[in-house]
Queue: 2 jobs
Job 1
Amino acid sequence: MSLLDEIVSAFADLDEERTINLVKEALEKYPLNEIFDACRRATDIVGERYERGEYFLSELVYAGHIFNRILELLLPRLERERVSILGTILLGTVEGDVHDIGKNIFKAFAEAAGFKVIDIGVDVPPQKFVEAVKEHKPDIVGLSGLLTLAIDSMKRTIDALKAEGLRDKVKVIIGGGRVDEYAKNYTGADAWADSATKGVKLCKELLGIKE
Ligand code: B12
């Protein structure tokens, strides 16, 4: 079993100390995004076990705690790619959804790539996005969400931007475990991403920035 597979298995079994030790070992051997991917695969397994009734809410909470400990190890290792600012991203988790680990990872990757990120938190109502767009005039609005119901909140947020005449002034990218091409079309977003690296690449494309 590779070290990354061992991380997936230890994390999915919620063996906190073993997971942390394996991540420390992996830091010397693998690129950061591969370690992040392994951790995300582990949370998918945690989610499946929760759906099957093998894990309960307390296990979801614990998985979140382990992931946050992993982030403390990984995020300081992200290196800044450039000094000038590529553009501003207004970022938040949409109304009804409090999942923020993925949002925080995307934020860290986007900042490392040279974007300025304004993070307005979780469970953000559409009107709060509208007000923040007026205040900060971002180039991109990033909507995060992991629940199926988040897709409707994303749509309501984009509709609110349209109603205020702001939709044409920003690009909108949606992100999270359940977004896809269908969700992009349904919500009226410009792009979707289910990983932070993909998200950063698309943000550059949306602003016409060449790699
Ligand atoms: C940890 C966890 C929690 C923690 C969250 C802690 C936190 N601070 O975030 C807690 C315990 C709070 C929680 C609560 C709940 N959860 Co929960 N949770 C999870 C779990 C296990 C992991 C989520 C996670 O952090 N993944 C790791 C990150 C890194 O992945 P990610 O978020 O997808 O992020 C990546 C990309 O998507 C992308 N990305 C993310 N955001 C953005 C934004 C942009 C703009 C871009 C470009 C990219 C991007 O970049 C990230 C890095 O690559 C998932 C299982 C799963 N498969 O997702 C369930 C899961 C999401 N939860 C679920 C449920 C049901 C709930 C609860 C309703 C449970 C309950 N009965 O109360 C509540 C909902 C609370 C609410 N109103 O939001 C379900 C959702 C089902 C559904 N289809 O709606 C899941 C899928 C579990 C399952 N399989 O049943 N949960």
Job 2
Amino acid sequence: MLTVFGRANSINVRKVLWMLDEVGEPYDRQDWGRGFRPTSEPEFLKYSIFGVVPVIDDNGFVLRESQSIVRYLASKHKRADLYSTDLRTRATVESWMDWASTDLYAAARPVFHAMIVNAKDPALAIAPADGVADWTKHMLRLEKQLAAHGPFLMGDAFSIADIPAGMVVNRWFTLKFEKPTLPAVTAYYDRLHLRPAFRTHGRNGTP
Ligand SMILES: N[C@@H](CCC(=O)N[C@@H](CS)C(=O)NCC(=O)O)C(=O)O
């Protein structure tokens, strides 16, 4: 059986758990990472020298990087509906995944770290204004895309393009700070909420 190494409250592990549920693949999961067993332990490092979660072991095939794992699972399960086999459509899916991780997620990170990871008391934590401004800039781009070409990132249908972005959108709505109203993003969040796997691993109360 496939094993996932990583704590279930990590945004990157959650992408993989969401995908596993989408394709209906059963798995075991071990808690590794912040607050659980440290990834600096040799037992973890033999799976990934980088010491970050998630990592999967699929019957001897070890893979790290959350988005590579999501793409691997889509291909393994021949889910062309989620990850097109058409060259250009596939490249566009990948471009959304790259954007969500390198721009959107990177912009969300300083706010998350200030309000959750480094906060003495998350209930009293205040979002850093410069971090919010940068994150908002990218959320406005998402709003523009969804309003013009939604309701999903690839248009009419859900695809793996929505997994990395969907996780950051959950973080946006779950963290409490002053934010602009984004009607298309709000509708997107509600639409994703219709998916049981997103309710379990995405919109589950954890930022
Ligand atoms: N690019 C990697 C990033 C992995 C990453 O940064 N994981 C974080 C959790 S979200 C981590 O392992 N942090 C250290 C820890 O939890 O001990 C991926 O997408 O899988």
